[in-house]
Design goal:
198 residues; alpha+beta; 5-stranded antiparallel sheet; rod-shaped
């Protein structure tokens, strides 16, 4: 008996095409999986970079105060200036959104913008003696890193009779400042000197 084998090339071609298509599908799936993982890794890295950038340019405002004579030689000085200022200890620029003043925990109206009325009201509330404001709150100002900006300055005459008023007034004053980073992240800082019990 003779065994005759006939080859149906059409069937073999179809099977070979199916095998090649299957292998191509497997290779394509693996390539898609790899590119998806690479895209996820790139997205993760981009988010980490953005977070790092946000932190690396974040402003950090701290308020403080000082009394500065108009002349370093105190014998020649005619007044002291109470300066309340903001210092940017962060690495990014801070934009001042709002400044609110409180005297004896009472909010002074009109302090949301840079008009003279707000500073005048603070002076009126703080001082029974002759004093004068020379600086307004910096709403809208940009404070660069490692710099400071005076938000309120009050001049007092030199003399021991004015010393207690200066010290008492700084304890009565509270200031609330809202600022934002270049990314639009909002933060707040507060100024309030603790009372001396001496």
């Amino acid at each position: 008996m003779e065994f005759i084998c006939t080859i149906d090339w059409a069937v073999i071609s179809g099977v070979a095409s199916s095998i090649i298509a299957g292998i191509s599908l497997i290779v394509a799936c693996k390539a898609l999986n790899k590119s998806t993982k690479q895209a996820e890794e790139a997205t993760k890295q981009r988010k980490e970079t953005e977070q790092y950038n946000r932190l690396s340019i974040k402003p950090l405002l701290k308020p403080n105060y000082r009394f500065v004579p108009d002349n370093p030689d105190l014998q020649l000085a005619t007044y002291y200036e109470l300066q309340v200022y903001l210092r940017n200890y962060g690495l990014g620029v801070a934009k001042i959104n709002t400044v609110f003043f409180y005297v004896d925990d009472k909010k002074i109206n009109g302090c949301k913008n840079t008009n003279h009325t707000a500073a005048t009201r603070v002076i009126t509330e703080l001082s029974s003696m002759q004093s004068q404001t020379i600086q307004l709150e910096p709403v809208g100002e940009m404070i660069e890193p490692k710099t400071e900006h005076i938000i309120l300055a009050i001049r007092y005459k030199i003399g021991s009779e004015y010393l207690n008023e200066r010290l008492h007034n700084i304890e009565r004053l509270k200031i609330e400042v809202e600022y934002e980073s270049l990314y639009g992240e909002i933060d707040n800082c507060f100024f309030k000197k603790k009372k001396n019990n001496s």
